[in-house]
Amino acid sequence: WVDGLTLSEWRQAYEVHGNHVPWNLTAAIGIEVLKALHAAHEHEDEDGNPAPIFHRDVTPQNVMLSRCGVVKLTDFGLARAMDRSSITKPGFVKGKISYLAPELTYEAEPSAQTDVFSVGVVLWEVLASQKLFKGEDPLKVVGTIRDTEVPDLWEFRDDLPGRLREIVARALQRNPIERYASSREMGRDLAALLRSTEGAADSQVIAQSVRWAREQLARSRPNEPATKPFAAKEALGKGVAADETIPDPSIPLIRKK
Length: 257
Prior knowledge:
Layout lengths: L3 E3 H10 L2 E2 L2 H19 L11 E2 L8 E4 L4 E3 L6 E2 L30 H17 L9 H10 L14 H10 L11 H13 L7 H18 L9 H8 L16 E2 L2
Antiparallel strand pairs: 1-4, 2-7, 3-6, 4-5
Helix pairs in contact: 1-7, 2-3, 2-6, 3-5, 5-6
């Protein structure tokens, strides 16, 4: 149990409020996901031999953000330790199709690069506020993934640093060799970008953003059971009406055009 939101819900809360997600918080969340993947990719067996575990199902629904600012990568149900026998059946593609790397649609073996591609899809979608590989027909989605025509993120918002666009674009290269060699390498580039820019993106700011996002979702779903009303409770203590929206000043809000 993680007391918070999925990355998908977090993004939705900003959409409800008419804003883009803060790119620096998105990058900070991406770094934590990449750290989790690196730990899995570097897994060793009891004898100290490499036994990498590849997630194969990195999606916005499988990234959890706690109200304390901790990022969790969940649901390793499709992961496979390489010291086990293959569990792949002919013609059966594991993982949510729209987040699969192109080579996995050809039944290639999972790798660090396939997980990096999935992270690239997740970051692209969260930043652009829309699906990357769309379609009702799974076969058409697979065809789109194999073509890997990725629109430039600047087509959707012009506040993103060029370096961030480059990092996401590299993760989404069709050829695995042209992607990041490891999740750690991609995480380092994101961390270097954050260090070179102003604006805090630590766990405390993520926590404030999650609490704010939960409040936005609660307001947009009045008929659903409410989660703990963090912002409303704090507002009452400050003499502010509980039904007012109180964005934390440390949370950057970028209005959609």
